[in-house]
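writing this on my phone so excuse typos. first protein, seq and then structure
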Amino acid sequence: MSNRLIGYHEGDGLLYGLSGASKLLFFILVSIACMMTYDTRFILAMGVLSMYLFYQAKIGWKDISFVVTVIAVVAAFNLLMVYLFSPHYGAELYGREDILISAGYFSVSSQELFYLFNLLLKYFCTVPLAILFLMTTHPSQFAASLSQIGISYRIAYSVSLTLRYIPDIQEEFYTIRTSQEARGLELSKKAGLISRIKGNLQIALPLIFSSLERIETVSTAMELRRFGKNKKRTWYKYQVLRKEDWATIILALLILALSFGLIWLNQGRFYNPWA
């Protein structure tokens, strides 16, 4: 089992060959398109497209299981809070309330379930694309792509260092945890939840503070080498946009245009099947 929560994985295929800039623009534009509209037909199609691209990347479940589990828990909690704070919001949006489960103020209607379903679909649109981008783009190429779209290379380089450093921290955490378990500290599923949380925190907190010291060391070393003196810099992983990259960017722009078109057609962000 991989010790990394998430990070770049080498692979073959179209997604791995695309420039980081085209993948970044595709992710940003499609995410904006999915966030702008609540047209179920559109976001369902985008969810299917995201899952298909994810399948094409051939990323193993063991490499993303923890991250997906955390996101699923967060999504479920978010949907629950939306319902608890406004169980009749769907009825207000769609102008109708068909009660399925009668429970007073917390009655469940078809319209509320439809609204929550749309919210859930948005996770299927954006989360797979985000994971795909991170796992198919080399950190150095990611930094170069940020520079290509006009972001300061200082920021781009900071992002690159972060993406490189996170996997190292994860590896150290698992190494320390394994050594602690070898000394008799039970941190596996055999131990209770509270015990595991306390044990992992005892490892994570000192590791975080030691990481902050390393960041200061790296920053000082870069300053001594006069990093940031010039306005521009070259990139080892810079990749010129090819026809596949331009096709990816054009597809993202068409998807964004379709999203705005549906907003105009529906006379709002929401698609109302009861209208």
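second protein below, same order as before
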Amino acid sequence: MSSIILFDGECNFCDQSVQFILKRDSKAHYQFASLQSEAGKRLVNEYDVPNQLDSMILMDGKKYYTKSTAALRICGKLDGLWKIFYGLLIIPRPIRDVFYGILAKNRYKWFGKKDSCMLPSPEVRDRFL
């Protein structure tokens, strides 16, 4: 079973992050769902994720991970040198999440916002819920 990444489908930075992951996930470890989609809303409820969470969410087995923990765990399964970022999990989460929080808080201002979610290309459409 692949892990699921929930992302903000209206955020340009989040969309670029999904594209980045797709290019470096040759073994298709990850599936994707927008937080705004029906599948995303259902998974948030199913995993009992707090509603106002400002984070990309990694759902892996019966657990979910947020903020920097999600991002670094995602890196652990990517192709190439991106795996080394997984090692940053040794840094205490509150410290890591300060930096994640700054990016999350400013992502619309720095990268912009879309009116709707992107449509995946036919090559990767089956990886989106």
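The chain has a mean pLDDT of 88. thats all i got for now
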